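Just wondering, does anyone understand these tokens?
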Amino acid sequence: MQNRTSLPAAAAQVAQAYPELYRAYSALGAACAASGPIEAKARRLVKLALAIGAGSEGGVHSHCRRGLEEGLAPEALRQVALLAIPTLGFPRAVAALTWIEDVIGRPGHPPTTTA
């Protein structure tokens, strides 16, 4: 779980105002992560997929940013959005790709092109 200083502004304000609640939320996230055999990078991709399915632009941004920090390839992040096409539909997948590119296209993470 992220520490309060690395959270987006609104979430950091809630965490600051309600530290016990945020500690409990963080502990729940850690317990969920430790509940089974899925390795960290695969968990990140699953969480990205869940954010895509929920239509959460902020969640997609967060999981992409953290995935890149954890060593995931940009192509893996894009593939998650492409895998959404048959299940969630083309429009949701395209939206997810644009959200992923928001992060991948940032300095230090240039978008890759395919021929």
Residues 1-36 form one domain. The helical segments are 9-17, 19-33, 40-54, 57-69, 74-88, 90-104. The chain has a mean pLDDT of 90. The first helix runs from residue 9 to 17.
